[in-house]
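Q: Hi! Curious about what PHP domain protein looks like structurally. Here's the sequence.
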Amino acid sequence: MKADLHIHTKYSGICKFWKLSFPDSVEEPRNILKVAKKRGIGVLAITDHNTIRGGVETKKIEKEFGVEVIVGSEIMTKEGEIIGLFLNEEIPKYLTPEETIERIKEQGGLAIAPHPYSPICKALGDRIFDLDLDGVEVFNAYHRDGIVNNIALNKVIKNYHKKPFAFIGSSDAHIARMVGNAYTLFEGNSADDLYKAIVKKRTTFEGKATPLYQAILWSYDIVYNSEKKLIKSLIFNVDDDIINSLKFYKKILGVFGGAIYMLTPLPIVSGFLGNYYLKKKAKEKIKEV
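A: Let's find out. The predicted structure is below.
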């Protein structure tokens, strides 16, 4: 069975890149489940940043789509991100990696290292070999460079005899159409079977890099949804405390800036520039490891 174990929803919070702040995802849980069902994903994990709310909300509607949902979170530690799977309580960010893993396992959960050699995300790097992790994400579809995934896979294979991990593949989806770009394969037909397979290190992975057009659509969706909220907030309060707190003139500037972004080739230009930047940083990462 296929399991996509790294997916974000509209509950994933705010990201920062340079001096820009923007939502990590604006995707509705229902849309994620629709695509998962269409692509034959039998189990998925919602792993929003530093919260299990997205997983809890998505699990409420899993039976409508026949896709089993694992409640998870991508938790920021002092040294890099760790994914907790099968969670039922929030885990605070900025603990040590050891403390974070302990909190995960106290709930009966599993600890996974996402994109361990990412040059653009907070990643654990070689610290994965010192920690009590259950699995390592050796293929992350969102990292399109073709380099950092190979670094992770080669290092995990090289050290497997002394520190075995379950091999994890994930989409790291930020919009619904990214779901299933990569996934973990396991024997069985349920989340319980997946749990056992990860513990026994009997998983493998398949997938392909996220197409560039999907990364471009992600940025467009972020701006489009923010634009709608900004326009509505000029008259009414919206379900976004950050937007509600903005001064009127800043909302006007935001609407104007969003319109320029959407009505010009900027999404395409920013997509290609972002792709170039990722590949450049990935090549630098080779020299570091």
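A: A fun detail: Residues 266-288 form the longest helix (23 residues).
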